[in-house]
Amino acid sequence: MLDDASLHPVLDTPTILLTGSTGFVGRSVLNALVGVKYPVVNVTRKNGVPPVPGVQDFIIGSLTDEIDWKVPLSGVDVVIHSAGRAHVMNETHSNPLQAFREVNVDATLKLAQQAADAGVKRFIFISSIKVNGEETRAHRAFTAHDVPAPLDDYGVSKLEAEQALLALAGRTSMDVVIIRPVLVYGPGVKANFERMLSVVNKKLPLPFRTIDNRRSLVFIDNLVDLICVCIKHPAAANQVFLVSDDNDLSIGQILEKLAVAMNKPSCVFSFPYFLLNAAASLVGKKEFLQRLCGSLQVDITDTRKRLGWTPPVSVEEAFAITARHYQAQHSGSSHG
Q1: Collapsing DSSP states into helix, strand and coil, what is residue 29?
Q2: Could you say which of 38, 154, 185, 326 is catalytic?
Q3: Which helix (DSSP H) or strand (DSSP E) does residue 307 occupy?
Q4: Can you list the domains of the chain with their CATH numbers?
Q5: Is 273 designated active site?
Q6: Sign of the CA dihedral with 12 first, then 13, 18, and 24 last
Q7: What tens digit of pLDDT does each residue of 84-105 get?
């Protein structure tokens, strides 16, 4: 990490180029930028999206290193790059690492180099906690200063992009800001968090009360708030930030808090982990159980101190907002 402060302060009302606005994170970032009336160049693969005041759409095909960014970068002060090839649970590509590198490394660096050439002052890269690793042990949380230890191709590609971006910052006048979120949740969340909402909503019994793990999560509004702070904060220049709600929970606590948020009885009960592990092994779900019951904690002390930032939404409020949205979308699927 470079420790120099930015010598190129960002304007009070910067023009932002945003990628990935159709994704879960990017969509919320776009809404926030529109809310504070920043001019936005929205790089998207979708035609026919209704125009938004203050937003100029720039249509691309696939995100590759062959795109000429000169036109959309004209007059841009800050790039927020949230697009990329996402982590894939059931990979089908014959060379997954190459596929991740083409999008997450090569295309990212092409955009960043052209941004620096165009006089962009800051490049914010949405990375992943997978750069640090997959699991923490003995309640020792990851920090931004740990030696990276990615274990999958997605994490490797994100780390390689981070390293190349910081090297670019070292030889140009463009600042780079790297943000590594943990699991992001909020209204419309998919994957494992949506599954937890579903089982709690259906009042299914869950044998996780005595699992002594800790998970860091981040509510989408908290992540977006940090991204917006990083647009102009001088102390963000050339730094890596971890982000969470700063309230780590066990799997049992997550499920119990979701039950409260959904106004459902808690159906979490105690069950010996070794029996749970044996049962999961029998049905081929051992890896899934380990992800659910393992620990992944991040320490955001550096983020808080360097930026003077605190997550604005509490876990309880965030769970309530997420639960209300889920129940509104699934009002006919359960009762009680």
Answers
A1: helix
A2: 154
A3: helix 301-307
A4: 16-249+294-329 (3.40.50.720)
A5: no
A6: positive
A7: 888 665 656 678 888 889 999 9
